[in-house]
Amino acid sequence: MQLPAPPAARRLTWLRWSCTTALGLSMWCAGAALAFDLQGHRGARALAPENTLSGFQRALAIGVSTLELDVVLSAEGVPIVSHDTAANPDITRDPSGRWLQSRGQPFHQLTLAQIGELDVGRINPASRYARDFAQQQAVDGERIPTLAAVFEQVKRLRADHVRFNIELKRNPERAHESPEPEAFVRAVLEVVRTEGMASRTSLQSFDWGLLKIAQRLAPELPLAFLSAQRPRFNTLHSGTWSAGLREADFKDAPALLAAAGARLWSPHFNDLNRTLIERAREEGLRVIPWTVNEWPDMERLIDWGVDGLITDHPDRLRAVMEQRGMTLPPPVAPMVARQN
């Protein structure tokens, strides 16, 4: 009797099949894209300020295959890199150096000049956030970058193998905090295309309405359908986040994803089990869960055959992968070492 292939081999076999059958995945199917996808969440959030140029440089120095980042728009309609639709007081100081006391105006109501005055180089030590990420090294004076600046940084570092997984941040339950959906998607696509990064970029969102717009405007770009089924945050329950689709109307979450036109599913890692991953395969879905930070969780999910992991600790995930003999993405030397 022939023994079953190990999880990594099964994953690559399935990917080779999907490259020839699933539409819209050609960018994921060339060369190293077949390998396990090590995604640095907001750069390397556990180690460096999130969604900043220094944070992305830290992730690249560790060695990731994909930079995961979030975008919103400024008042001018320029994509900027922020997880929140308004400044997060846990990580933001005003021009005088004082910690913000509230979220304030949404970014899409602030100019680039106003946004550029905010310091996001360290976590407020009085916050729970600081306890959660006690290892993060501060970089005082770090600013919120534009999406174009991130692309330019990666070009300067000649990190030509690195991909970008860009989350479009919009809360459909607080739509007033975000710009008009189609204008939002168009603004991001314009930067991606102008910077020549379309072949290296995927878009993701919890708001599947934005992904439907992206499917229409940029059918060539891979899309990742984010989901959460947590007690206080369930994006598949009411249809508000999932473009009108509700899990109760389908066999299970993978069936809902397939009905939405998904090819890549990024669920909360605690929402997964081996059976659901097998069901996702039956529905033609790749699976890259978020945000996986602990060694045992990484090992379990790799054993179950996921296609990659999004993590605040790319250093830990690299160690797990190395221990298992998995192919590692190359690290990228810091900019100071490349000036010649």
Counted beta strands: 11
Using the coordinates above, name the CATH class.
Alpha Beta
The CATH topology label is TIM Barrel
Question: What is the correct CATH architecture?
Answer: Alpha-Beta Barrel
Compute the CA-based radius of gyration: 19 Å
Domain GP-PDE: 36-321
GO molecular function: phosphoric diester hydrolase activity
Protein name: Glycerophosphodiester phosphodiesterase
Organism: Hydrogenophaga borbori
Question: What would you note in describing this structure?
Answer:
The chain has 340 residues and is α/β, with parallel strands linked by helices. Residues 1-34 have low confidence and may be disordered. It is 31% helix and 14% strand. The chain has one domain (12-68, 75-80, 144-326): TIM Barrel (Alpha-Beta Barrel). The strands form 2 sheets. Strands 1, 2, 3, 4, 5, 6, 9, 10 and 11 form a 9-stranded mixed beta sheet that branches.
In short:
With 340 residues, the protein is an alpha/beta fold.
List the helices and strands and how they pair.
Blueprint: H1 7-21, E1 37-41, H2 53-62, E2 66-73, E3 79-81, H3 112-115, H4 128-132, H5 147-156, E4 163-168, H6 181-194, E5 201-205, H7 208-217, E6 223-227, E7 229-230, E8 233-234, H8 253-259, E9 264-267, H9 274-282, E10 286-287, H10 295-304, E11 308-311, H11 314-323
Parallel strand pairs: 1-2, 1-11, 2-4, 4-5, 5-6, 6-9, 9-10
Antiparallel strand pairs: 2-3, 7-8
